[in-house]
């Protein structure tokens, strides 16, 4: 498939424009001007295609748009925003499914971005999380989408957890559900009580879930002398998020994470009391 590199054509026009207006804008002002010029370019007649970039994609069928996007990625030709905008405007996710399920990280990332929170695709999103074969960044994007509809996929997330298929993703989704399910609470608490390197994250899940029954467990853990600075911070945040308070002074001056934070951003007091 022969592709039109509209971004390259825009760069050519931009170079001329910047040469002609080099004294008109500061470097910071150019950062605002260039996106506006690119948007205007979408409605500019391009002799090479005998239409504007927007019109070029508007003439394509949805299948052609999907194939064009795929070809851009395969041939490493920059994907024009006008192409993505046209695909989004059509609202037909069916032809994007091959990209989502291709096993190709880049194609899947574009598909997730264009499909977004379309509920028809939730079963596929869940399957991708269970399989865990895509790049973690892509799967994180999938989780971010599902977290906005966490209650709709709660049962799927519980099953993921029980079957140890995408456990971390399941916990993150469950933490965003409504706090009225004993089973979800028990799962999140159980994982928190395992204690280990993931304890700070587990504490954040309890804070996000919002069930105040977790407070005694958080308070018991934060009072342990062996916890480090990072865990202390996350525990304290979780306690406060649930309406609790912890004011006992703690000394982390020998903690490597505390020292790293202090080196990059000096902490006023060497006694850690973040009340």
Keywords summarizing the entry:
275 residues, mainly alpha, 60% helix
Provide a quick synopsis of the model.
The protein is mainly α and 275 residues long.
Describe the secondary structure blueprint for this structure:
Layout: H1 6-20, H2 27-41, H3 53-58, H4 62-74, H5 81-90, H6 97-100, H7 105-115, H8 122-131, H9 136-147, H10 154-162, H11 167-174, H12 182-192, H13 199-209, H14 215-222, H15 229-241, H16 256-264
Helix pairs in contact: 4-5, 7-9, 8-9, 9-11, 10-11, 12-13, 13-15, 14-15
Q: Can you walk me through this structure?
A:
The protein is built from 16 helices and no strands. With 275 residues, the chain is an all-alpha fold. Helix 10 packs antiparallel against helix 11 and helix 13 packs parallel to helix 15. The longest helix has 15 residues.
Strand content: under 5%
Give unreliable regions as ranges.
Answer: 269-275
Quickly count the helices: 16
- Separation, N- and C-terminal Cα atoms: 62 Å
Overall body shape: globular
Q: What percentage of residues falls in helices of 4 or more residues?
A: 55-70%
Number of extended strands? 0
Computed Rg: 25 Å
Oligomer: single chain
Order of helices and strands: HHHHHHHHHHHHHHHH
Mean pLDDT: 93
Largest sheet: none
Protein structure class: mainly alpha
């Amino acid at each position: 498939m022969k592709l039109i590199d509209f971004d390259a054509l825009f760069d050519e026009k931009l170079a001329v424009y910047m040469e002609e207006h080099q004294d008109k804008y500061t470097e910071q002002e150019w950062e605002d001007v260039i996106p506006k010029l690119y948007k205007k370019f979408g409605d500019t007649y391009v002799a090479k295609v005998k239409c504007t970039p927007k019109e070029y994609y508007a003439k394509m069928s949805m299948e052609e748009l999907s194939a064009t996007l795929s070809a851009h990625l395969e041939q490493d030709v920059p994907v024009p925003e006008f192409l993505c905008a046209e695909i989004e405007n059509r609202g037909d996710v069916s032809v994007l499914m091959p990209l989502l399920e291709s096993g190709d990280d880049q194609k899947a990332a574009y598909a997730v971005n264009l499909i977004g929170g379309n509920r028809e695709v939730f079963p596929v999103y869940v399957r991708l999380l269970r399989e865990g074969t895509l790049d973690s960044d892509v799967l994180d994007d999938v989780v971010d989408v599902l977290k906005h509809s966490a209650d709709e996929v709660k049962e799927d997330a519980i099953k993921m957890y029980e079957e140890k298929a995408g456990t971390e993703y399941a916990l993150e989704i469950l933490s965003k559900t409504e706090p009225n399910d004993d089973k979800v609470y028990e799962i999140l608490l159980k994982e928190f009580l395992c204690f280990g390197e993931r304890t700070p994250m587990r504490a954040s899940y309890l804070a996000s879930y919002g069930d105040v029954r977790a407070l005694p467990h958080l308070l018991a853990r934060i009072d342990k002398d062996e916890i480090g600075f990072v865990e202390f911070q996350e525990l304290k945040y979780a306690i406060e998020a649930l309406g609790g308070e912890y004011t006992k002074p703690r000394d982390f001056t020998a903690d490597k994470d505390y020292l790293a934070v202090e080196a990059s951003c000096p902490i006023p007091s060497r006694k850690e009391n973040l009340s």
